[in-house]
Design a protein that fits this description.
Blueprint: H1 2-18, E1 21-24, H2 44-50, E2 56-59, E3 62-65, E4 68-71, E5 80-84, E6 90-93, E7 95-97, E8 102-103, E9 111-114, E10 121-124, E11 129-130, E12 132-133, E13 146-150, E14 155-158, E15 171-174, E16 181-184, E17 189-192, E18 194-197, E19 214-219, E20 225-227, E21 230-232, E22 236-241, E23 250-252, E24 255-257, E25 270-273, E26 278-281, E27 284-296, E28 306-309, E29 312-321
Length: 322
């Protein structure tokens, strides 16, 4: 009996030693080893690239202006963890603060600013509105809440949602035309406590990742968990798509709001596409415009069902959809 008691904690230590923990923080450098807070990486992409099955990535507080993509992370053997060191304080951003706007001469409601990056979207943050794109800035005089970007002149034009001057609102400009954290075919990956904002596209074609840009996008995930995450003002918030191969995933204790695309109605705050024994539970979604929390797709047999449990959603045409 004594041998069993003594050997059990030794076994647990051996499991922990087999896993690596990597760190990312705002004081780090991608030239570092990433194996401690003092030797942390600077970018989440570098940290995610370093992960092997069973490893942990801990992301320190701060804003990370980047898009991260990884394929085939994790395996059926054990969990792989990507987490915020303090939940809600590690924010992945696809947007940047808007420049100062000035009124266009000869117009009552049109304002412009110098801007040298293609604008994917303009977000009126205080009203949780993503502006629709207009191809002609003069049309903004009669279309409140829209924007126009002149790539040749590098000028950004807007009209506010209430026709008041822009300095009465808070604006950001989405400039990264990609998903925030994009995991392709992950297996037993847990994402815990990260936040995502500002990922969008000015063109919408097809369906899926080409038509919207999500804060978090998992493609064909298997037994993955998204927990305590926040997404706002992306063209889609937290999205998992099965495509006939993913299964048995869980989204829980997440909050998503103001995620939608003016160009495509498929945007959603929290969504599972093509469910296969997947669950969304204990989540909040609001002001998603077309959809708030959704399990969506054609169910061919009972095994492909999904569940929405104990969720609360408001402020959209379709709040809870299954």
């Amino acid at each position: 009996m004594k041998k069993i008691i003594l050997s059990f904690p030794v076994f647990l230590v051996m499991i922990e030693l087999n896993a690596m923990e990597y760190f990312v923080n705002k004081q780090g450098s991608d030239a570092n080893e990433g194996t401690s807070r003092e030797k942390a990486f600077a970018t989440i992409q570098k940290g995610v690239d370093a992960l092997q099955t069973g490893d942990i990535l801990t992301v320190g507080p701060g804003e990370y202006f980047e898009s991260v993509r990884r394929k085939n992370l994790g395996s059926e053997e054990k969990d792989t963890l990507i987490r915020a060191e303090i939940r809600g304080t590690a924010l992945m951003r696809g947007d940047m603060p808007a420049p100062q706007f000035r009124k266009v001469e000869g117009y009552r409601f049109v304002y412009l600013a110098d801007f040298d990056r293609p604008a994917q979207a303009v977000n009126e943050v205080d009203t949780l509105m993503t502006m629709a794109k207009n191809t002609n800035f003069s049309g903004l005089e009669y279309q409140p809440g829209e924007f126009c970007y002149d790539a040749e002149a590098k000028k950004l034009y807007i009209s506010t949602t209430d026709l008041e001057p822009p300095d009465r609102h808070l604006y950001t400009v989405s400039v990264i035309k990609s998903n925030g954290l994009w995991l392709e075919e992950p297996v037993r990956v847990i994402v815990d406590g990260l936040a995502f904002t500002g990922f969008n596209t000015d063109t919408a074609s097809g369906w899926g990742p080409d038509s919207t840009k999500s804060g978090l996008f998992m493609e064909k995930p298997v037994r993955c968990v998204v927990r305590h995450c926040v997404a706002y003002l992306n063209s889609a918030g937290l999205m998992l798509t099965m495509e006939g191969a993913g299964r048995s995933n869980l989204i829980e204790h997440c909050v998503a709001y103001g995620n939608y695309s003016p160009l495509n109605g498929e945007g959603c705050n929290i969504q599972v596409l093509g469910p296969n024994q997947d669950t969304i539970r204990n989540c909040y979604g609001y002001w998603g415009r077309d959809h708030n929390i959704s399990i969506y797709g054609r169910v061919k047999d009972a095994a492909q069902t999904g569940w929405i449990k104990n969720c609360l959603a408001w402020g959209a045409w379709l709040d809870l959809q299954q």
